[in-house]
Design a protein that fits this description.
With about 475 residues, the chain is of the alpha+beta class. About 40% of the residues lie in helices and about 20% in strands. Its EC number is 3.1.3.16.
Length: about 475
């Protein structure tokens, strides 16, 4: 009698556990099927809801019959049934979006920092690059970064994280070994710094500032948004550089249209998984203009600056020790800049601003997030840049950290690193005076000290190709 009772209890426990696991797998399967269907078809919500109810009822009947069939064969068959369920195992949400073939190729952008998150993928073949004429000017770049908190890893399908459970299938282990981020089969360009993203090349620099408030939202990821817009924007600039340009028929790119395209591609890339976020954007593209001097045609550098939000592009002329150009901040209200992304009314075609700036060889171009300009006034930025340049010119072989030496031009790396350090010193000082504190007081808000934020700087020196 006691043995029969024990067997009955054991069978009851096995049945309960079996139905619990069966229900869990069934719910995961239903969710995955629903997401697959919703990503394939954009149909009326009511009609799709009725199709889902019918589909779910059919699967419920099938799963119930299978469960009863398994129960009739005793506890041993129940255990086997849990291991070999008719439903596919629940996996990462990215399984329904198989990763495309990757076009890695060797990194060919000189100015981009070679760190784990600094990834660049050429969009053109080496043959087409070799055929492109060498531009008369280029930007020698350096990057400086400070994050108030470590960056969050990118979610699937932009990465393929390793299995997090013994019950998950291990068939994607070959993708999990590559922790770099991909979109549409390409390495995501640039660097992530907290919620910021930066990019540097010989013809284009960019600094995007992701709005950190999205970090508390379940589907929020501002760092992903800032990086994706930067990636697609840089890709559009690279394509634009392939357009022929001459003195008689100069090519002038539509920078706002390129940013609009990047914005729309980011919307498409994040729509399926509903990853939410917003970001500001500022970037500068190096072009060439022509001046007639008698019978000669002298090319001169031209900077095309595009801005949306409260980041800033600043041009400093060291020989005159002054700022010759800087972008104006765009706000909805205090501490709420214009931004691209989820639920934001702002778009590049409606709100972005573009400027053309005449450059000289030797000018310094800075692309900065608000972590710099909220903590340093303009004259402090100029003094810091000039001091860093002077110090580097006196001792160009000065030993610096390895990551700074590898990030591009050593002088510009020193400028960017020193500027970030100066801004960081104010940001962490609760008693310092800062531009952010000044603006808050003007708005009638009590504020003291600097503003702790992600600080990102891309410094570029305009030089002549020889």
């Amino acid at each position: 009698m006691f043995a029969a009772t024990c067997i009955g209890v054991i069978l009851l426990v096995v049945l309960v556990e079996f139905f619990r696991r069966l229900g869990k797998e069934y719910d995961a399967f239903i969710l995955r099927q629903f997401q697959r269907e919703s990503s394939k078809r954009y149909i009326d919500g009511n009609s799709f809801g009725s199709q889902l109810v019918t589909f779910r009822a059919t699967l419920l009947q099938q799963s119930t019959r299978a469960a009863l069939h398994a129960v009739t064969f005793g506890g041993a068959t129940c255990l086997a049934g849990m291991r070999t369920s008719q439903f596919s195992k629940p996996g990462a949400i990215s399984r329904r979006f198989p990763r495309q073939s990757r076009s890695l190729g060797p990194p060919w952008r000189r100015g981009c920092c070679q760190r784990p998150y600094a990834t660049t993928a050429p969009l053109e073949s080496s043959d087409s690059q070799a055929e492109r004429p060498k531009p008369p000017f280029r930007l020698e770049t350096g990057i400086g970064l400070f994050a108030k908190r470590p960056p969050r890893p990118f979610p699937p399908p932009f990465t393929s994280p390793p299995s997090g459970s013994f019950s998950d299938p291990l068939s994607t282990h070959h993708r999990s070994r590559d922790r770099r981020s991909f979109v549409n089969g390409e390495l995501i360009k640039g660097l992530t710094n907290g919620d910021d993203a930066v990019y540097a090349s010989e013809s284009f620099i960019c600094a995007n500032d992701g709005v950190g408030a999205w970090a508390v939202r379940p589907r929020g990821h501002a760092g992903l948004w800032s990086r994706l817009i930067l990636h697609f924007w840089a890709a559009e600039v690279e394509r634009d550089m392939s357009h022929p340009s001459s003195r008689d028929e100069p090519h002038r790119p539509d920078s706002i249209s390129m940013l609009q395209t990047a914005y729309e591609k980011t919307l498409d890339a994040t729509l399926a998984h509903d990853w939410q976020g917003t970001t500001t954007a500022c970037g500068a593209q190096l072009l060439v203009r022509h001046e007639n001097e008698g019978s000669s045609d002298k090319p001169m550098p031209l900077l095309l600056v595009t801005q949306l939000g409260d980041g800033q592009v600043m041009v400093i002329r060291p020989r005159s020790k002054k700022v010759i150009f800087k972008t104006a901040e765009q706000w909805h209200w205090f501490d709420c800049p214009r931004q691209l992304g989820t639920n934001s009314p702002d778009t590049p075609k409606d709100n972005a601003v573009t400027d053309a700036v005449d450059l000289e060889v030797g000018d310094v171009v800075l692309a900065m997030t608000d972590g710099v300009i909220d903590n340093l006034w303009d004259h402090e930025i100029v003094e810091n840049v000039l001091q860093s340049l002077s110090s580097w010119e006196r001792n160009p072989g000065k030993s610096r950290p390895k990551e700074e030496r590898e990030s591009g031009h050593p002088g510009m790396s020193a400028v960017a690193a020193d500027l970030v350090e100066a801004a960081r010193a104010i940001a962490v000082d609760p008693f310092a005076e800062s531009p952010f504190m000044e603006k808050a007081i003007e708005e009638g808000l009590a504020s003291e000290g600097g503003k702790l934020d992600d600080i990102s700087v891309v410094a570029a020196l305009c030089v002549e190709n020889k």
